[in-house]
Amino acid sequence: MKAYAAECFGTFCLVFLGCASIIAGGFGNLLPLGGIGIALSFGVAVIAMAYAIGPVSGAHMNPAVTAGVFLSGRMPARDVLPYILAQIVGGTLAAAALWSIAQGNNAVAPVSRAANGWESAGLYPTPTAFALEALGTFIFVTVILGVTAKKHRTALSGMVIGLTLAVLHLCLIPVTGTSINPARSIGPALFAGAREMNQLWLFIAAPLTGAILAGILGRTGFLERA
């Protein structure tokens, strides 16, 4: 139970701190330069949680990461569903907290500003958004599996993971707002509106697709030192 509670708390912190940079911090109004602030908010949140709850649960904070870790053979099947449910609960509670903050405050952006989507910008077709989210997740999960392998793990592993997430945000914010994490997308979408809910499927399917590929690669031993 400690591990599940840690995943819920860690995901809450990730979604709250990352999305708060858009909703309350105002970085969403400062794009493209504001993307740096958003990217650092998500990246630093991952770094913080990696060291805070990593020893307890592994600090997945992401159903795609959990899927990749399981498929690589590093996690028992009995923990997969509880981890994912805990992450979704944490992300939803974070979105609820941000929704409460935004109510009645004209200086704070609505939660819809932090929801993932690609149709509103009209710059990228659905296949492109799907491919980039899947590729971004593949890269992210592969890095996690690589730096957390027993023969590779160092005190800097959490830093590498967080900086990788920050870089991916810098690349994907203009396309989808950057998800690569179904729990990060589900929570805000629930409090955003019909348009965001209609697009939510992509931010579940694409990250899981990328994670599955990364997990299969990890199982082959490709990421293990000879």
Automatic annotation (TrEMBL):
Gene3D superfamilies: Glycerol uptake facilitator protein
Pfam families: MIP
Membrane-spanning segments: 34-53, 80-102, 122-147, 159-180, 200-218
Membrane-protein topology: Multi-pass membrane protein
Subcellular location: Membrane
Protein keywords: Membrane, Transmembrane, Transmembrane helix, Transport
PROSITE patterns registered for this protein in UniProt: PROKAR_LIPOPROTEIN
Taxonomic superkingdom: Bacteria
Entry similarity comment: Belongs to the MIP/aquaporin (TC 1.A.8) family.
Protein name: Aquaporin
